[in-house]
């Protein structure tokens, strides 16, 4: 399956998830659902582990992986790849979606591009004051997406959430 086919497939999956997460009954009481079933690829698992190892070394709590956050991060990667840019476009929508879907009260995001290893992107984020602030922030969960474009270059989105 080529990169464009993967993007189209993920777009359908994410659109379906988005619709399911946003369909509400006005008479229903809002229930916060925690989804810890995250199906990371190896690169994403390595990034998650390295961020948690760093946080633990700083005396901070490890962050729980949450499926909805990872799916939201993956959706943003699809946007960045489709537009050929690294950006935070639509962050407000992602923040709102995670507030509704998880009860998130604080959301932050790191993005990256071009690194070929988990260590490379994590070290770059730690060396950047703003990205490091997010990694060390008062959060309890996160989701990571590492997606390759058709040239094999990685785009990264790491979303942090406090519920």
TrEMBL record:
SCP domain sequence ranges: 49-157
Family annotation (InterPro entries): CAP_dom (IPR014044), CAP_sf (IPR035940)
SUPFAM superfamilies: PR-1-like
CDD domains, alphabetized: CAP_bacterial
Protein's name according to its UniProt entry: SCP-like extracellular protein
Taxonomic lineage of the native organism: Bacteria, Pseudomonadati, Bacteroidota, Flavobacteriia, Flavobacteriales
């Amino acid at each position: 399956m080529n990169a464009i086919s993967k993007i189209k497939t993920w777009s359908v999956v994410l659109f379906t998830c988005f619709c399911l997460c946003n369909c509400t009954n006005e008479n229903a009481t809002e229930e916060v659902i925690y989804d810890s079933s995250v199906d990371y690829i190896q690169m994403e698992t390595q990034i998650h582990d390295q961020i948690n190892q760093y946080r633990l070394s700083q005396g901070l709590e490890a962050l729980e992986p949450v499926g909805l956050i990872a799916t939201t991060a993956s959706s943003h990667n699809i946007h960045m790849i489709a537009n050929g840019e690294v950006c935070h476009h639509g962050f407000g929508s992602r923040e709102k979606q995670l507030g509704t879907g998880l009860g998130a009260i604080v959301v932050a995001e790191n993005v990256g591009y071009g690194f070929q290893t988990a260590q490379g992107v994590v070290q770059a984020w730690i060396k950047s004051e703003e990205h490091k602030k997010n990694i060390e922030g008062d959060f309890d969960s996160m989701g990571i997406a590492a997606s390759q474009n058709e040239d094999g270059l990685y785009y990264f989105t790491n979303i942090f959430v406090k519920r």
